[in-house]
Amino acid sequence: MNNNSVILLDCTLRDGGYYNNWDFPKELINDYLKAMHAAKVDVVELGLRSLQNEGFKGACAYTTDEFIRGLEVPPGLIVGVMVNATELVMGEMSLEASLERLFPESASSSPVAVVRIACHVHEFSKALPASKWLKERGFIVGFNLMQVADRSQEEIENLSLLASDWPLDALYFADSMGSMNPVQTAEIIGFLRKHWQGPLGIHTHDNMGMALQNTLKALDEGVTWLDATVTGMGRGPGNAKTEYLALELAQMRGTTCNLMPLM
User: Mapping DSSP to helix (H, G, I), strand (E, B) and coil, where does residue 5 land?
Assistant: First the structure.
């Protein structure tokens, strides 16, 4: 995966899973995968990977290698999963032991290529060593910083300094409350660039109807990993819509995308 290329990541089954306890029928997932391939999505985040077994949850709450191998993933479509940092830094096991349980296979044999860690600010420094463990096993690694919109410039710059010491493939920031506008989006990108020179990513929420605008502003500012979900499906008011962002990127790339399977 080229660090300079724009990556469209669809996380419908992970973020949309909050609606239905991550219990998606297998037939629907296979249809979704075909639709994502036709829409020229680069990465699909198929769900969470978790050690927590409290209550009934569907397969996309755990997204095991065995489960993914039973799906019809089109050639060239990259598969990812997300881990909540809380499970790595607040559990009874060490970070390394938790990772070994979560990822028994290295990237060379696993159907998963991309692993993202969702982090609150107070978890960030403790969770960052997971990036080295995962990179040593061949995974593409992203860290998603949550709730940074209400942090000060100094705090955000300090977070970028912490990140610069670790082998992340993408440093994401999430507009967790959906409170940002394009001007604030550009400001935060500038703060993160103080020390972090690698690829940046953005995950927007649509509380104010600004998710797509904020994502496109981030793209203009050099952010190369862009999150979206089908119809914006996700927690609260949802996210940037995959169908809109796919069209914008196809126009930018001078290519075409087929949204008919998605529709």
Answer: coil
pLDDT in tens, 15-25: 999 999 999 99
**Residue 102: both structure tokens together:** 């979560």
| Spatial contact of 134 and 106, defined as CB atoms under 8 Å apart | no
Calculate the alpha carbon distances from 87 to 20, 105, 170, 179, 180 in Å.
Answer: 21, 19, 20, 27, 28
Question: Scanning the structure block, which residue is given the tokens 């191998």?
Answer: 69
CA dihedral 233, 16, 123, 202 (to 10 degrees): -30
Helix and strand element counts for the chain (H, E): 12, 8
pLDDT in tens, 14-51: 999 999 999 999 999 999 999 999 999 999 999 999 99
Query: Are 176 and 149 a contacting pair, CB within 8 Å?
Result: yes
Buried b (16+ CB within 10 A) or exposed e, 26-53: eeebeebbbbbbbbbbbbbbbbbbbeee
17, 61 contact by CB (below 8 A): yes
**Residues in Cβ contact with 184 at an 8 Å cutoff, skipping those fewer than 6 apart:** 149
- Dist CA 244 CA 44 (whole Å): 16
